[in-house]
Amino acid sequence: MNQREKLTKMLLKQGLIRLLKQKNINRINVKELCAEAGLNRSTFYLHYDGVFHLLEELEQEIIGKTKEYLSKIEADNDSIAYIRAFLDHIQKNGDLYTLMLLRSDELSSFPKRLINEVLNNIDNDLRLNVPEQLKDYIYAYLVNGSLSIMQEWIRREFTVSSSEIANLIYSLADSSMQAFMSRNE
């Protein structure tokens, strides 16, 4: 990708982010996005099929950057340190994550996809011990619970430290896992 293409895509993504702060994705059209980005429609259509295509690329970019950031974390088999690093990353990029994790459109699967990626990394790096046939159910529980806690943390503007939230998420997940495992012994 050349510099001009990178700049064009960056301008479109920044324009989309500004518009998403004002309205739901379903109400954003290519014409107003191009006006916001200072580009013409033909330039937009050289790169994207529509606004949702651009949003998908933006979401994938955020997930990719999050995974890249987390891959550099030295967790040393410490789930809490890994979760805290993820939360620190969210807090450091608060405006973007506030927008993307609290977006009100029902079509967005981004929050769950992001949390699922993080949990998959924890599983790959730290080898969570869960029965294979129940793994999807357990992950659904962990993803939804963790996401709800993080969304509440964001809504409250990060008033609780990332360490406390990491400990909360880990403790609730660990307690649930311990209860599950003890019932199945």
TrEMBL record:
Residues of the HTH tetR-type domain: 6-66
Keyword terms, alphabetized: DNA-binding
DNA-binding region listed in the record: 29-48
Signal peptide (from-to): none
PROSITE patterns noted in UniProt: HTH_TETR_2
UniProt-recorded name of the protein: TetR family transcriptional regulator
